[in-house]
Design brief:
The structure is a homodimer.
Chain A lengths: L1 E6 L3 H12 L1 H8 L3 E7 L13 E2 L2 H5 L4 E6 L7 H10 L3 E4 L2 H18 L3 E2 L11 H6 L6 E7 L2 H13 L3 H10 L8 H4 L2 H15 L9 E2 L7 H9 L3 E11 L2 E11 L12 E8 L3 E8 L3 H18 L21 E9 L2 H12 L2 E4 L7 E6 L2 E2 H9 L4 E7 L2
Parallel strand pairs in A: 1-2, 1-4, 2-3, 4-5, 5-6, 8-10, 10-17
Antiparallel strand pairs in A: 7-9, 7-11, 9-10, 11-12, 13-15, 13-16, 13-17, 14-15
Helix pairs in contact in A: 1-12, 2-12, 4-5, 5-10, 7-8
Chain lengths: 404, 404
């Protein structure tokens, strides 16, 4: 029998407890032995909850119990999660976590300890919630040079953008509704400013390069400036605005960023709506593959965590993960070549010459019911070239990148 | 250094050779040691081809060479592949195959030998070409009771249906073009009659139930009866006709079938076009996930085979696969409840009473330019109930199932 301790009885923690109970037979069969939650650690008490009889408040009980072979960390945040996880690994216990902040900040160190101790540090649920992506990256996409990963990695913002698109809502209304439905936190910055997606693309990029990507060096722009008016322009062009986290090989380097992008109908992420996530991967021999599913939510995330527990119990030795404690030097995003959508105040006819002088060939966009301003789309140019030109534009309101 | 032998230098075999050469550094890094193709077995000679220097015609050279630790079988067909694979496994060599006929026919026996010998029998490329699905089923979707798998598992027929939809082609024209492009064989029955998809859904269903599914017991209907007229009706209803292989939990049993289904726009497989494949999986806690990519083609399939080689080299011990040599009793598909689309000769107005008497509530469909016949869609009913009623229908032309 494999005995497991769960750190944190919040949304995901209670989901883990529930998934193991609900699917006990399947979990046992796949793990090759019975899996039992012996402890749940939380500062709070839960009188009347079935978890009560296994609840502990002191991590040392778990750390010092030699029966515990797997620790599930679903507390979130770097501390005290890091201290707990590190000491569990040092004590020879495998750790399964959904904590992207921890993985993005301390991944290589924790992976190295697990390797040394011949156990596992697994983090399937840290990216894409229930979508299998970490293990496929490690064990399936191993014959390819990965050319790019682009993902809708944050369900909250994807829900908000879907509602703005479908209902014509402004950002504030979408955020309020997302908060009422429990999709967005009261402090929604991690989601709407792109930091959640940024940590996730840092993890994925580290995995396919084998080097550590410092998420703080990834250019990150959220959706808080996206307005109902921007969406009207996108609709007029047959495009959708999505918050995309991506990393791409350009020449011999890699560029990574998070930003709103306007996608056309042929783009594989165009149809990913509501709280769903999807990760598009392109390999040099494999071509395109896409993984789609519930990117968040109690049970889907818990399902991924429990699949890690099954893997840890079943494997009983270290599964090699190549993620060295050596920083990957990201290339500047200025080298990316794409088209840009720009909003300008004034009338298209009056400004035509100035725009042509600055940007060369452009296509003007003018949706019904938008006055005193217009939009245009540039030809292909590099980000740095665009930035130079954009500076010269009088009356510029804002710009949004187009994805080919 | 890991030495590999490749059985068969056809499309996939030459792809495997090319992928290992092209991505040698990545393959070595992920495998943890250098991977070298020492032999390629084929009856033919390939003068001037780089493979010439490793080409052998006698399988015993491979079998008796203790340096060979991994055998790649990409010959196709059950024999002589089965004899070669079995003897390689018995000799302690891991086997990686793309051969769905072999896996569907002999899976449990070969898995059992690999387990006994503490090596691996891997078959990622046998379903979905380059799409990672076998390993995710085995190592990611392990915390869930799988409620259904539905897939577009055959790229040739999906290409044909896409062309019939986009260009208004008849079946014969679509088939001819698919053959000219090399997507369809000269004898296209395995694709167009659904047998290829049938073997693949049998493999996936065996993996999630842990029991053996006899593919011959799966109801299988291909696309050869689908006409440009059927597609016109589907378009009129906003639906697409796709060849879907599925298995679903109904009560305490499982139903599996392959047939054309009419999908609505909200269905996750609706947008999967051309030669692409996709597999939709629903878990009881995970909810929906979908895997999408190139379901066939030399390099994508070879990429999946080489990822198996990497896994075999890296793992060096048996990875447990639960697929017992005990048949799963499939339930009769008569229990599936759905709507049905029916074409009838005559005029809707004249036949209204008869149809109402037989089927109760229906919705009539009458696309422009189709004369002397009409279509209608039934309410929800079980397959067996529908079959009883359909028998009574005078002037029935054909029916196609609707997926909710």
């Amino acid at each position: 029998m494999a005995k497991v301790a769960v750190l944190g009885y919040g949304t995901v923690g209670s989901g883990v407890y529930e998934v193991i109970k609900t699917n006990q037979d399947i979990v046992n069969k796949n793990a090759g032995e019975e899996v039992e939650v012996k402890y749940v650690l939380d500062l709070r008490d839960f009188p009347g909850d079935p978890v009560e009889k296994v609840l502990v408040h002191d991590f040392d009980i778990i750390l010092n119990d030699p029966e515990i072979s797997v620790v599930v960390e679903v507390m979130g945040g770097v501390e005290p999660a890091y201290t707990f996880v590190k000491s569990a690994l040092m004590a020879g216990k495998s750790v399964c976590t959904s904590n992207k902040a921890l993985v993005a900040a301390k991944g290589p160190e924790l992976i190295a300890i697990a390797k040394e101790k011949n156990i596992n540090f697994l983090f399937e649920a840290s990216v894409g919630g229930g979508i299998p992506i970490i293990r496929p990256m490690n064990s399936c996409l191993t014959a390819d040079k990965i050319l790019q990963i682009s993902g809708i990695l944050n369900g909250t913002t994807n829900y908000m953008l879907t509602k703005m698109e479908d209902e014509g809502w402004e950002f504030d209304e979408a955020l309020k509704t997302a908060q009422e439905l429990g999709y967005a936190e009261r402090n929604p910055e991690a989601d709407v400013d792109g930091w959640d997606a940024c940590r996730k693309i840092a993890i994925l990029t580290s995995l396919y390069t084998g080097l550590n990507v410092d998420y703080e060096k990834i250019y990150t722009e959220g959706i808080s400036k996206i307005s109902a008016t921007d969406i009207k322009y996108a609709k007029k062009m047959g495009l959708k605005i999505k918050l995309i986290a991506y990393s791409k090989r350009i020449g011999d380097g890699i560029v990574s960023a998070v930003s709103p992008l306007m996608l056309n109908k042929a783009h594989p992420l165009y149809n990913v709506s509501d709280v769903f996530n999807a990760i598009y991967v392109e390999g040099n021999v494999l071509g395109p593959v896409m993984f789609y599913g519930s990117g968040a939510g109690k049970l889907p995330t818990a399902s991924a965590v429990v699949s890690d527990v099954v893997e840890a119990v079943k494997t009983k030795k270290n599964i090699e993960v190549v993620w060295e404690d050596k920083d990957l030097e990201l290339k500047d995003k200025g080298e990316i070549v794409r088209r840009f959508f720009v909003r300008v105040s004034g009338e298209a006819a009056a400004e035509e010459k100035m725009i042509k002088d600055i940007f060369g060939k452009t296509e003007v966009v003018k949706p019904e019911g938008i006055n005193n301003e217009f939009g245009f789309v540039t030809d292909q140019m590099s980000e740095s070239d665009f930035a130079q030109r954009y500076k010269k534009l009088e009356g510029a309101i804002r710009f949004i990148r187009l994805e080919q």
